[in-house]
Each structure stands twice: as structure tokens, then as C-alpha cells.
User: Fold this.
Amino acid sequence: MTGTSMSTPIVSGIAALQAAKYKITFKEQISEDQLWKLIKYNTKDLGIPGADREYGTGFATLQPLELKLEAKNNDDYLKINNEIYNLDSKFSFNDGVFVLPGGLIGNVTGAYIQYNDKDILTFEY
Assistant:
């Protein structure tokens, strides 16, 4: 009851739930790369950094884990958990307001982002 024999069905179940949530949210099938990132961003590294014999690559969960966003004013890229994503336009801060490309964040993290005609933003992760 240990090792890959037990982790495979757990991670497969997490992947299936993430893929279903993505399809419901975005009305399209998730790509393999996006699904991998969702699982990766929801896995907590245990033991020594990186993969190891005792913990493998870590503890996979459906619970939100840390999400680190980095951006500099007027840059044309954004870092999400140290991975660089090129933007269609320059990133900006406007009068202390953080202007963020919501579609990109939603696609990368699986977060549900919705806005309506009254400029109300809903962000659910």
C-alpha cells in the first residue's frame, strides 16, 4: 500500500477532476501541458528539494498551494512560480492598481476568473 501503486490512482483522480473543472470553466478540453502545470502547481515538495526516493515529487492535492506572481512595471512578460510567460502587451501598474492578464492566469493556474459588464471581478481558486 505504498509507492507508485498507491500514488498513481490518486494523481489520476486529481488529474481527472482538474480536467473536468477546466472543461466546465473554459468550455474546452485542457491541453496536456496545462494539466501538467495544474498538477505541478498543486504539489507540495516534501523532504529534500526536488524528486527523491522517499517522497517522489511530493504531495499532490486539490487544495490551493502557493502561487508566486512576479512582474515589473512596463515589462512584456510575467513570472508565475518562476516560469516566464510572454504577454501580448506591456504589464502595468495604474495609480496603484495592479493590471493583470486574467486569461493567462486562469489558463496557467486553473483559477476561475470571471467579470461582468459592471467591472466586477470574481477570482476563485
Observations:
- The mean pLDDT is 75.
- Residues 67-125 form one domain.
